[in-house]
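note to self: dont lose this again. the chain is below, predicted strucutre after it. 116 aa total, dont forget to put it in the shared folder this time
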Amino acid sequence: MLAKAFLNKGPAILLAWMAGILIVAPAGEEMVFRGAIHSYLSARIGSRTAIFVAALLFVLIHVPQLDGYWPAMLGIFGLGVVAGVARELTGSLLGAVLVHVAYNSVTMASVLAGRS
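---
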């Protein structure tokens, strides 16, 4: 797993990994998927279908790092749907980013807790 490569490289690398997972990735990915893609599709095919399509595309970019582990793919699809709904309900990317940060925080805590 990609996360394990960062866990034993020292505190500076671990902090950089954490910043990337908790700040950079959620903001950047949500700008692309819920900002650009969702907004573009929503105007053309409706918000419900846009949420589904953006979530599906979101999963597809994560497939390489998941190594075929389908339960994680379902979790990431669910994250995409919930982030899309948050985007719709708030009318802002902030809701989607906060959902993404929460998901990544729980995932990171699980990885760090399983570290020996």
